[in-house]
Automatic annotation (TrEMBL):
GO terms, molecular function: DNA binding
Example GO biological process: regulation of DNA-templated transcription
Keywords: DNA-binding, Phosphoprotein, Transcription, Transcription regulation, Two-component regulatory system
Name of the protein in its database record: DNA-binding response regulator
Annotated signal sequence range: none
Residues with 4-aspartylphosphate modification: D102
Residue ranges annotated for the HTH luxR-type domain, each copy included: 183-248
Amino acid sequence: MGRTEPGAGRGDSFHLTGHYAGAAPERQPDLSWQVQCCASIPARREAAAAGVVFLVDDDAAVRCALARLIAVAGHRVMTFDSASEFLDHRYDGRTPACLVLDVRMPGVGGLDLQRELNAARAPLPIIFITGHGDVATTVQAMKEGANDFLTKPVEESALLRAVDQALCRAASDLHKRAEQDLIRHRLDRLTPREREVLALLVQGRLNKQAAYELGITEKTIKVHRAHVMEKMNVHTLVELARAADKAGVALPAAFERP
């Protein structure tokens, strides 16, 4: 089972709950992200520092040594001796996390685990470590989205730098997902007519044009527009279009207009 290696951590414990990220059931978004995630880059770096490093390596000596190194740098570490053990564990997806992963292990190898996480749409920033590195393996890992690829014996500064970068990426990804969740939550509050108006507004239609296309009065369009702006918590059409684009939110086809 997942463990905190001796010397890894500062006396605190880390409990993993829920299914692995990406497999969690639908839920209402935690709107507290506005306090936690809409902060500056330094604040996101602070959030990353509170993250966790999952270390997967079948070599106990290497695993323990790397765990201690990462822990001394101030990060929480959880270790696993196989990819299967890691997959059996649970991660709530709400904490910045990265994976330090050996490429060659009995059973499920590092690249196989990477593919499985990607297929489940539950990717974590991955730092591969290996004593058998080759160009083809490195290229494949990077194509699949790996953050870094280090060879054993691992240079301490290189590993810690890679971990810092991976956790910052994880914190940034969480921030983006929180924005997407919030905007989708706000979209869900719109009526069908308000969604139609929204679709026309973000496509650049004037009030008069939108009224003509929907067969309603310009005054009614203005009322719907005010409701859309209020529910989406924006003040200008530029903010409205930018929010939808940033979150990657696509309006239902039924509401799209040519």
